[in-house]
């Protein structure tokens, strides 16, 4: 019998690649609109007063965050799983009709849920909880989509030929389990049509409306346990899974230390879950919870930097590849931004620093140097690596890829530096007082001072969006570029995939 290489089936991978790109454009475009709305408030009325309800900041902001987190990023996670999973487990989805069915069902239900999210948020139907704005019918749909994803993932693992689970698979499993736990507990809610007032009368309200099972301080505690760990298991864990696969494959270098990858994995699992309290410093939550959040945030530097240093040392002795390969540039700079972001966050969690930073734009800058520099760069790098192998076509233009890299890097630097300056300026002005103890500045004074930085932030975001459109064009043209066979591409390990 002829011993031919395994033919992987990328049908579902392609579906999620397209949604990653589409939702990335939507999320980033809305983000740029919001950035310029803050600098030029008249843009809130960009389609006239009649439609201002749908174009103002408060209506668009949850659409931006959810499109980037649950649209662009999660689609990227799904796309890379259906690619990486097959290759490191040595099994094709085409070998199981059930797995193919689950994969396609996963995609279409996910797409329907995305449409429901967009429509409901545009309509102002929201629970008003950060990163958890969806009402109960959509929450149920999301749980169903997530369960199908889990069945598909563990089904593939169950029929694998490669008995050892490569480290990337560990991180994908953790992503599934972590988000499942977080989402279920934070979204415990009761439809108001089932609720009763204290006197026993029916509360009423729209059929889709719900109220949280938690209240007050407890609600805040659960919300920011969820909110911070949604970053952990949505923006950190699966992106590490990607880079542990794609950086060795693209560079031809083995991971610097497999033991360090495992140590960092367990460190992240145990430490990240306790750090959410740093969002609630100087609030009504117990002081020991605030202190614990700060302490665990500082400890979190160790496993985070363990992962990032492991990635950078993977390139030891091969740094010339950074100059030669735009794809390696993306991944090395992504690792560097990961280091910056996971040092900056713990610093902001120190109580004395948080007294200045909280509620300021420095927090916004921290979020975006991580999301744009770490998450965005790594997902684009992953799709660039996958495209020739999925479409059996040569990358259309490496020079366009290089231009995109520098444009987006400039955009990220403009974004986070403007927000650092704006945030620290805000914090200092809010605290300043005269010799009589009166506040030295009114709130509008800070708004006026920050206008140039808000404009720079908008320009930075626009540059990043332009780069993403260049990325989209490059992938689109790749689909009709010169045909190639995978044997023509470099095929380094992990796991000999």
From TrEMBL:
<dbReference type="GO" id="GO:0006119">
    <property type="term" value="P:oxidative phosphorylation"/>
</dbReference>
<dbReference type="InterPro" id="IPR036927">
    <property type="entry name" value="Cyt_c_oxase-like_su1_sf"/>
</dbReference>
<keyword id="KW-0186">Copper</keyword>
<feature type="transmembrane region" description="Helical">
    <location>
        <begin position="412"/>
        <end position="433"/>
    </location>
</feature>
<comment type="pathway">
    <text>Energy metabolism; oxidative phosphorylation.</text>
</comment>
<feature type="domain" description="Cytochrome oxidase subunit I profile">
    <location>
        <begin position="15"/>
        <end position="497"/>
    </location>
</feature>
<dbReference type="GO" id="GO:0046872">
    <property type="term" value="F:metal ion binding"/>
</dbReference>
<dbReference type="InterPro" id="IPR023615">
    <property type="entry name" value="Cyt_c_Oxase_su1_BS"/>
</dbReference>
<dbReference type="Pfam" id="PF00115">
    <property type="entry name" value="COX1"/>
</dbReference>
<dbReference type="InterPro" id="IPR000883">
    <property type="entry name" value="Cyt_C_Oxase_1"/>
</dbReference>
<keyword id="KW-1003">Cell membrane</keyword>
<feature type="transmembrane region" description="Helical">
    <location>
        <begin position="453"/>
        <end position="476"/>
    </location>
</feature>
<keyword id="KW-0679">Respiratory chain</keyword>
<feature type="transmembrane region" description="Helical">
    <location>
        <begin position="371"/>
        <end position="391"/>
    </location>
</feature>
<feature type="binding site">
    <location>
        <position position="228"/>
    </location>
    <ligand>
        <name>Cu cation</name>
    </ligand>
</feature>
<dbReference type="GO" id="GO:0020037">
    <property type="term" value="F:heme binding"/>
</dbReference>
<dbReference type="GO" id="GO:0004129">
    <property type="term" value="F:cytochrome-c oxidase activity"/>
</dbReference>
<keyword id="KW-0472">Membrane</keyword>
<keyword id="KW-0812">Transmembrane</keyword>
<feature type="transmembrane region" description="Helical">
    <location>
        <begin position="254"/>
        <end position="275"/>
    </location>
</feature>
<feature type="transmembrane region" description="Helical">
    <location>
        <begin position="169"/>
        <end position="186"/>
    </location>
</feature>
<keyword id="KW-0479">Metal-binding</keyword>
<feature type="transmembrane region" description="Helical">
    <location>
        <begin position="224"/>
        <end position="247"/>
    </location>
</feature>
<comment type="similarity">
    <text>Belongs to the heme-copper respiratory oxidase family.</text>
</comment>
<feature type="binding site">
    <location>
        <position position="278"/>
    </location>
    <ligand>
        <name>Cu cation</name>
    </ligand>
</feature>
<feature type="transmembrane region" description="Helical">
    <location>
        <begin position="67"/>
        <end position="84"/>
    </location>
</feature>
<feature type="binding site">
    <location>
        <position position="279"/>
    </location>
    <ligand>
        <name>Cu cation</name>
    </ligand>
</feature>
<keyword id="KW-0349">Heme</keyword>
<dbReference type="InterPro" id="IPR023616">
    <property type="entry name" value="Cyt_c_oxase-like_su1_dom"/>
</dbReference>
<keyword id="KW-0249">Electron transport</keyword>
<dbReference type="GO" id="GO:0005886">
    <property type="term" value="C:plasma membrane"/>
</dbReference>
<keyword id="KW-1278">Translocase</keyword>
<protein>
    <recommendedName>
        <fullName>cytochrome-c oxidase</fullName>
        <ecNumber>7.1.1.9</ecNumber>
    </recommendedName>
</protein>
<feature type="transmembrane region" description="Helical">
    <location>
        <begin position="21"/>
        <end position="47"/>
    </location>
</feature>
<keyword id="KW-1133">Transmembrane helix</keyword>
<feature type="transmembrane region" description="Helical">
    <location>
        <begin position="295"/>
        <end position="315"/>
    </location>
</feature>
<feature type="binding site" description="axial binding residue">
    <location>
        <position position="366"/>
    </location>
    <ligand>
        <name>heme b 2; high-spin</name>
    </ligand>
</feature>
<feature type="binding site" description="axial binding residue">
    <location>
        <position position="64"/>
    </location>
    <ligand>
        <name>heme b 1; low-spin</name>
    </ligand>
</feature>
<dbReference type="GO" id="GO:0022904">
    <property type="term" value="P:respiratory electron transport chain"/>
</dbReference>
<feature type="binding site" description="axial binding residue">
    <location>
        <position position="368"/>
    </location>
    <ligand>
        <name>heme b 1; low-spin</name>
    </ligand>
</feature>
<dbReference type="InterPro" id="IPR004677">
    <property type="entry name" value="Cyt_c_oxidase_cbb3_su1"/>
</dbReference>
<feature type="transmembrane region" description="Helical">
    <location>
        <begin position="136"/>
        <end position="157"/>
    </location>
</feature>
């Amino acid at each position: 019998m002829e011993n031919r290489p395994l033919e992987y089936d990328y049908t579902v991978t392609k579906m999620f690649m397209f949604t990653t790109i589409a939702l990335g454009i939507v999320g980033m475009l809305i983000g740029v609109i919001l950035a310029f709305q803050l600098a030029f408030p008249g843009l809130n009325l960009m389609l006239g007063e009649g439609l201002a309800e749908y174009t103002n900041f408060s209506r668009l902001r949850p659409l931006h965050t959810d499109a980037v987190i649950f649209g662009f990023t999660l689609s990227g996670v799904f796309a890379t799983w259906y690619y990486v999973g097959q290759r490191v487990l040595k099994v094709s989805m085409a070998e199981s009709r059930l797995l193919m069915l689950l994969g396609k069902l996963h995609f279409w239900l996910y797409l329907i849920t995305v449409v429901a999210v967009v429509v409901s948020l545009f309509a102002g139907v929201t629970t008003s909880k950060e990163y958890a704005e969806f009402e109960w019918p959509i929450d149920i749909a999301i749980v169903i989509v997530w369960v199908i994803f889990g069945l598909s993932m563990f089904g593939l693992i169950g029929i694998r030929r490669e008995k050892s689970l490569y480290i990337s698979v560990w991180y994908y499993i953790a992503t599934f389990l972590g988000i499942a736990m977080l989402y279920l507990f934070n979204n415990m809610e009761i439809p108001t049509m089932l609720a009763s007032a204290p006197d026993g009368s029916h509360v009423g309200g729209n059929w889709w409306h719900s109220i949280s099972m938690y209240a007050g301080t407890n609600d805040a505690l659960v919300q920011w346990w969820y909110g911070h760990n949604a970053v952990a298991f949505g923006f950190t864990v699966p992106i590490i899974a990607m880079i542990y696969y794609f950086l060795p494959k693209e560079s031809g270098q083995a991971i610097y230390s497999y033991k360090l990858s495992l140590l960092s994995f367990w460190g992240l699992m145990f430490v990240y879950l306790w750090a959410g309290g740093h969002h609630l410093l100087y609030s009504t939550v117990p002081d020991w919870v605030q202190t614990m959040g700060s302490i665990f945030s500082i400890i979190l530097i160790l496993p985070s930097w363990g992962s990032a240093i492991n990635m950078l040392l993977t390139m030891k002795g091969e740094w010339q590849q950074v100059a030669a390969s735009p794809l390696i540039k993306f991944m090395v700079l992504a690792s560097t931004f990961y280091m910056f972001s996971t040092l900056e966050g713990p610093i902001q969690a120190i109580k004395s620093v948080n007294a200045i930073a909280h509620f300021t734009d420095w927090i916004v800058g921290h979020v975006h140097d991580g999301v744009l520099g770490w998450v965005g760069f790594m997902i684009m790098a992953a799709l660039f690596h996958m495209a020739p192998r999925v479409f059996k076509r040569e990358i259309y233009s490496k020079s366009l890829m290089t231009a995109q890299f520098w444009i987006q890097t400039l955009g990220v630097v403009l974004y986070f530096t403007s927000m650092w300056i704006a945030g620290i300026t805000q914090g200092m002005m809010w605290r300043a007082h005269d010799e009589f103890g009166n506040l030295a500045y009114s709130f509008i004074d800070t708004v006026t001072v920050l206008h140039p930085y808000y404009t720079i932030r908008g320009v930075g975001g626009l540059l990043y969006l332009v780069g993403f459109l260049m990325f989209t064009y490059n992938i689109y043209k790749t689909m009709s570029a010169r045909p190639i066979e995978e044997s023509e591409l470099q095929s380094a390990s992990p796991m000999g995939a």
